[in-house]
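Repro:
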Amino acid sequence: MLQLAAHIDEAAAAIADRWPFTPRAGIILGTGLGNLAEHIESKVVLDYNSIPRFPRSTALGHKGRLACGLLAGVPVVTMEGRFHLYEGYSAQQITLPIRVMKALGIELLIVSNASGGLNPQFASGDIMVIEDHLNLLGDNPLTGINDDSLGPRFPDMSAPYDLSLIDEALQITRHKNFVAHRGVYAAVTGPNYETRAEYRYLRRIGADVVGMSTVPEVIVAAHAHLKVLALSTVTNMCLPDAPQSTRGEDVIEIAQKVEPKLRAIVMGVLAKAG
């Protein structure tokens, strides 16, 4: 981690050279949710391969670029595609963009993802506002010598997801009259989907949905003292007694259909922040 600060500065300088503004929020768009970036005004787009130290996005449906501009009147930096452990990156590589967005000036991180529903009260196409998580990735982006200039050695994780933002998001869904839940997200490495026995195990230990991302970014956000709102689109149900096969293409299709609902939440939260 001791070289991390230099890598952050290098990447942040390259972005600021192309977009010399201070963002208030960073947004990570997950599987099938990249269309939100089309609503950014005064947009400057940077491919990840043009930003020093940034990994390359190889996940299905991820464009691999950074969109900077105004969303609901708020200056934002938006990741159109994230990184995952299953792509072969380390947890520190995955979370470098969060460090860079923090260096650019963000105070709020909004994260979205696609997930499999474990809670039988959920349905495909629902949105869950994440209130807590289970880190089952077997890795942590804070492993190694800590750089105190980036955050504390032992960051508190009692409330990594901002409670006021959770309430705001749920108020927006009630006003817009569509289904949303609050619950626990379990992060697993992937890239394979889970077995029926794993579904049972995850549900038994308290998970409402399961996915392959988000937790490393949120850990780093907590380390960097950022407020976090995380939204999970339930793209398929993972019920061990009524199993259905899961394809990545189907996950993307459902996530794209739900995108207008997710956009309504994000735009509402940003409008209030502005």
